[in-house]
Amino acid sequence: MDISVIGTGYVGLVVGACLSEAGNHVTCADIDEEKIRSLRDGEIPIYEPGLERLIPENREAGRLRFTADPARAVEGAEVIYIAVGTPPDEDGSADLSHVLDVARTIGENLTPDAIVVTKSTVPVGTAPKVRQEIESRTDVPFHVVSNPEFLKEGAAVEDFMKPDRIVLGVESDEVKPRLEELYEPFVRTGNPVIFMDVASAEMTKYAANSMLATRISFMNQVAELCEETGADVSKVREGIGSDPRIGSSFLFAGTGYGGSCFPKDVQALVRKGDEEGVDLSILRATHTQNERQKRVLLRKVRDRYGADLSGRRFGVWGLAFKPGTDDMREAPSKVVIRGLLEAGAEVAVHDPEAMEVARGVFGDSVEYADGPYAAARGADGLLICTEWLPYRRPDWEQLGAAMTEPAVFDGRNLFEPGRMRERGFQYFPIGRPEVRSPRRQEPGPRPGRPAGERAGESAGSAGGE
Questions:
Q1: Cα 238 from Cα 407, distance rounded (Å)
Q2: Which pLDDT value is given to residue 253?
């Protein structure tokens, strides 16, 4: 098929590359001329495993091309994907301006009987708006389809090539055979292609992301209660996750969720509920808990060292909101690092993929280490924000020797408290037993500094936010 994809972000690039891999002729369009120029030069603007092979191979085969002219991409296309951003407005609702701009461009250049597929995450009721914008600029017949994406950053290519399900919202049965043919190469193992009405498909995306976000916030609240009662959230997770009615996914306690989907989609669904007179109080609490959870490591640091961190140095491992990506949108690491800086600390950071992105976020306010141990060098504490594989089995002897004080604040519960005690580390996980140094109860002056200048005269001074 001849396909166009409007938008070359995470979703658009993955959709275009994967569809071209299946033998389709795909044109990806974006009004960002610099991005298109980079793609033509072989530079991929995001880190997403698999794209580094798919894009050049399919470009060389003539199945994938890029243009900065969306109108040209639409001309002659049998299927047109809308894959532009829907950022949150100030009130949390989804901004549809980019989607509707694309719809107008489609209407002015549409081929008869083309299928317009909304791949962007959009609230219920968007499809009629898209249809209205297109119809205002053309008389040719066309179809509007909602096809929400369920792509995990860091595994998006794998998710597209081997989906666990494909959801398609259609206005009539007429278009179903063409969509089944389009997606047939990706569901040969029998995973379902689920057809439904358009409104239900639009709702499915928001409901799925909001359900997963709610599970995360719920477990983070359970973790807080575990810390107060002496329970271990990792054992609790194992116990409840073995129940087939619950399952084990998205039950890990940590520093909260981030990225471009969960925060935005939860707030957008809450806003849609407000518009319809439905109080989605569970999702309001999900969002509130998540914003609070992003500060959990800061609370632990302040409890250990006091509110004033002047003269202290901390290393941070992990900047991206999750492993496998360089995406720092809504990442908990940003809240953590800014909190450390505001309290007067020096901060050195490391991430396998997100260092350049971080430079655009923090500028010269932090030190960019060339490796994990360099980030920990001279540190009073090490904070782990992202569970990259290289961080899970460090050289403990090298790490301990690099740090001024062997204290690890683990936002991802990577290690066993008992083993950390044996290694001689102070250990502060989430919802699990802590391993504290006796110095916690009787803090002495930091080496080389007068006693009256140490940060935090008592545990009580750390207090609240």
A1: 27
A2: 97
**Whether residues 454 and 315 fall in one domain:** yes
Is there a single domain that holds both residue 165 and residue 28?
yes
**Mean of pLDDT values over 410-429:** 97
The count of structural domains within the chain is 3
What CATH number should be reported for the domain holding residue 369?
A: 3.40.50.720
Q: How far apart are CA 39 and CA 24, in angstroms?
A: 19
Q: Are residues 313 and 425 in the same domain?
A: yes
Instruction: Please tell me whether residues 288 and 298 are part of one structural domain.
Output: no
Buried b (16+ CB within 10 A) or exposed e, 432-464: bbbbeeeeeeebeebeeeeeeebbbeeeeebee
3-state secondary structure 18-77: HHHHCCCEEEEECCCHHHHHHHHCCCCCCCCCCHHHHHHHHHHCCCEEEECCHHHHHCCC
Cα 332 from chain centre: 10
Side chain identity at residue 349, one-letter code: V
Q: Exposed (0-12), middle (13-18) or buried (19+): which is 312, by Cβ within 10 Å?
A: buried
Domain range enclosing 349: 294-461
Last residue of a domain, one of 168, 196, 224: 196
CA distance 23 to 340: 50
**Six-digit token pair at 21?**
């891999």
Report, as an integer, the average pLDDT of 236-253: 96
Nearest Cα residue to 155 out of 331, 372, 339, 10:
10
Catalytic option among 18, 28, 261, 385? 261
Q: Known catalytic residue: 385?
A: no
Residues 368-376: contacts with CB within 8 Å, 24+ apart? 369/315, 372/317, 373/398, 373/399, 373/402, 374/348, 374/350, 375/315, 375/316, 375/317, 375/348, 375/349, 375/350, 376/315, 376/317, 376/348, 376/402, 376/403
Distance, in Å, from the CA atom of 81 to the CA atom of 227, rounded to the nearest integer, reads: 47
Question: 177 and 95, same structural domain?
Answer: yes
Indicate if 302 and 391 belong to the same structural domain.
Answer: yes
Which pLDDT score, from 0 to 100, does residue 449 have?
35
Prediction pTM value: 0.87
Where residue 214 sits, what CATH number does that domain have? 1.10.1040.10
pLDDT digits (tens, 9 = 90+) for 164-211: 999 999 999 999 999 999 999 999 999 999 999 999 999 999 999 999
Are both 250 and 301 inside the same structural domain?
no
**What integer is the mean pLDDT of 17-26?**
97
Question: In 3-state terms, what secondary structure has residue 408?
Answer: strand
Provide the total of helices (H) and of strands (E) in the chain, helices listed first: 18, 14
Residues 186 and 40 in one domain: yes
The DSSP element (H or E) to which 220 belongs, if any, is helix 198-229
CB atoms within 10 A of CB 103: 27
Q: Report the percentage of the chain scoring pLDDT > 90.
A: 88
